[in-house]
Amino acid sequence: MGNTVIDVAWGLVAEAGQVVRIELWNNLRRVEVLGYDWHPEGRGAAAVYLPLVPFGEDYRVRVVSMWAPELFDDSDAPLTITGGAVLVIWPNGGETWLAESE
User: Fold this and answer.
1) Please, are residues 87 and 56 in contact by the beta-carbon 8 Å criterion?
2) Would you tell me which of 39, 49, 51, 86 could form a disulfide with 44, CB atoms 3.0–4.6 Å apart?
3) Sorting pLDDT into bands at 50, 70 and 90, what band is 43?
4) Using CA atoms, how far apart are residues 12 and 33, in angstroms rounded to an integer?
5) Of 54, 53, 60, 63, which is closest to residue 13 (Cα–Cα)?
6) SS3 of 40, please?
7) By percentage, how much of the chain surpasses pLDDT 90?
8) What SS3 class is residue 46?
9) What would the mean pLDDT of 11-33 be, rounded to a whole number?
């Protein structure tokens, strides 16, 4: 579901530098940039928020080198995101609304 934190671990070969961009992709395109991370030794782990996106079973996380963007890797298996693209915060249920009230 959107607005959920996931952990992403990454490691780069020396030619890729020390800074990465973490992205969410589906089978068609990049959906969202989830964040950036860096580590002086070229490996790390980041906690990123998933955005509110439509339900799907074909999402993948991609880690892209900022030094050499042609160097990237996708998660080994697809992610399933459940829920909807809209998050209702209020009302949350149980309220009583009078007809013609705001």
Assistant:
1) no
2) 39
3) confident
4) 19
5) 63
6) coil
7) 34
8) strand
9) 87
Inter-residue contact 43 to 11 (CB < 8 Å): yes
| Helix or strand run (H / E) with residue 11 | strand 5-11
At 64, list the tokens.
């892209």
Rg (CA), the chain: 18
Q: Give per-residue burial for 12-29: e unless 16+ CB within 10 Å, then b.
A: beeebebbbbbbbbbeee
Q: Where are the domains of the chain?
A: 5-81
Separation of alpha carbons 8 and 45, rounded Å: 5
Paired tokens of 56: 């799907």
| Per-residue pLDDT at 4 | 79
Sole residue written with tokens 């693209």: 85
Greater confidence (97 vs 2) lies with 97
